[in-house]
């Protein structure tokens, strides 16, 4: 269960992917509410993260801040702090861009915004397709979301071509359940299987069955919301208590002189998951300081027992979509 001590150097804490590339264990997620985040916050946070040692940056077209991420990377390269190949950038294909003819132009738009020649990982953000167009969240006059017929295999085929064209080094998925992963894995003529599945993962929601399935198929789990998530009732299940107030995580933290957040992140990477924490400028440094200790086997087992099998990120607003992933057992 317990992994050997992981080196604190940025170069060492990586997980191999099934296509020969590798992903850093700890990532900086760049999601923040555009209307509540002052311009420049993301850029400064990414620059700070790079200085601290982060090399995995998780972003998305739909976050509306990839321009700031790109500027931060560019400035740090110009300073000589990093080379482009030191950075692992994960971008995401949004749900209005699933039709095959939109996949490559959307990725090219992302690259132009980032001022990069390629991304390291390009994932399908959700297995749900929405009506293509200029609106990220298309709705009819009654406020009902307008969905689009999903053909995940057709979308995947174009992404394989994007990899062949060098626009992305690796391709993966996010929020896919077992059935949706099997749809890709069993696709006739499959050239590249997903290297990763980005899903909610933390001590209150460990997803053992999905994790075991992914492990069998050499698909790396990238955990989002590893510290729980914000308490926004419009899209978050707030019936589950805040993860970072958990008494066990806090008591183990006292033993190691670490925070509950550091214990939760250390648990995730000790399970062999890559984790992408949300953008929080005040915690960027603290959350990277998890490579100088390791949890005992007994502590790992105790934390595993915290699993409530309850999501924070339920996405119930889209539960009537034919491809909604969270109705299946896993």
TrEMBL record:
<protein>
    <recommendedName>
        <fullName>Rho crystallin</fullName>
    </recommendedName>
</protein>
<dbReference type="GO" id="GO:0005212">
    <property type="term" value="F:structural constituent of eye lens"/>
</dbReference>
<dbReference type="InterPro" id="IPR023210">
    <property type="entry name" value="NADP_OxRdtase_dom"/>
</dbReference>
<comment type="similarity">
    <text>Belongs to the aldo/keto reductase family.</text>
</comment>
<feature type="site" description="Lowers pKa of active site Tyr">
    <location>
        <position position="92"/>
    </location>
</feature>
<dbReference type="InterPro" id="IPR020471">
    <property type="entry name" value="AKR"/>
</dbReference>
<dbReference type="InterPro" id="IPR036812">
    <property type="entry name" value="NAD(P)_OxRdtase_dom_sf"/>
</dbReference>
<feature type="domain" description="NADP-dependent oxidoreductase">
    <location>
        <begin position="26"/>
        <end position="306"/>
    </location>
</feature>
<feature type="active site" description="Proton donor">
    <location>
        <position position="63"/>
    </location>
</feature>
<dbReference type="InterPro" id="IPR018170">
    <property type="entry name" value="Aldo/ket_reductase_CS"/>
</dbReference>
<feature type="binding site">
    <location>
        <position position="148"/>
    </location>
    <ligand>
        <name>substrate</name>
    </ligand>
</feature>
<dbReference type="GO" id="GO:0047787">
    <property type="term" value="F:Delta4-3-oxosteroid 5beta-reductase activity"/>
</dbReference>
<dbReference type="GO" id="GO:0006699">
    <property type="term" value="P:bile acid biosynthetic process"/>
</dbReference>
<keyword id="KW-0273">Eye lens protein</keyword>
<dbReference type="InterPro" id="IPR044483">
    <property type="entry name" value="AKR1D1"/>
</dbReference>
<dbReference type="Pfam" id="PF00248">
    <property type="entry name" value="Aldo_ket_red"/>
</dbReference>
């Amino acid at each position: 269960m317990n992994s050997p001590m992981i080196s604190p150097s940025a170069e060492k804490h990586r997980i191999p992917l099934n296509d020969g590339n590798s992903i850093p264990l700890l990532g900086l997620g760049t999601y923040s509410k555009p209307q509540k985040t002052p311009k420049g916050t993301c850029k400064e946070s990414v620059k700070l993260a790079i200085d601290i040692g982060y090399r995995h940056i998780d972003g998305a077209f739909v976050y509306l801040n990839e321009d700031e991420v790109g500027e931060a990377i560019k400035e740090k390269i110009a300073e000589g702090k990093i080379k482009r190949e030191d950075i692992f950038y994960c971008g995401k294909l949004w749900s209005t861009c699933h039709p095959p003819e939109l996949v490559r132009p959307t990725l090219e738009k992302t690259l132009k915004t980032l001022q990069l020649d390629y991304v390291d990982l390009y994932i399908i953000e959700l297995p749900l397709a929405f009506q293509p167009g200029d609106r990220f969240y298309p709705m009819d006059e009654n406020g009902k979301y307008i969905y689009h017929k999903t053909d995940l295999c057709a979308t995947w085929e174009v992404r394989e071509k994007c990899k062949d064209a060098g626009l992305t080094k690796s391709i993966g998925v996010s929020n896919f359940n077992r059935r949706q992963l099997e749809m890709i894995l069993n696709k006739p003529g499959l050239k590249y299987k997903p290297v990763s599945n980005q899903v909610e993962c933390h001590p209150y929601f460990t997803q053992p069955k999905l994790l075991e399935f992914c492990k069998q198929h050499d698909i790396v789990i990238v955990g989002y919301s590893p510290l729980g998530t914000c308490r926004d009732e419009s899209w978050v299940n707030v019936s589950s208590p805040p993860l970072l107030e958990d008494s066990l995580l806090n008591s183990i933290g006292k033993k190691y002189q670490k925070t509950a957040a550091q214990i939760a992140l250390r648990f995730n990477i000790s399970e062999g998951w890559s984790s992408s924490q949300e953008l929080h400028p005040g915690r960027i440094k603290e959350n990277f300081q998890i490579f100088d200790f390791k949890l005992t086997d007994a502590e790992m087992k105790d934390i595993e027992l915290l699993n409530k099998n309850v999501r924070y990120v339920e996405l119930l607003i889209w539960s009537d979509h034919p491809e909604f992933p969270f109705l299946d057992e896993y």
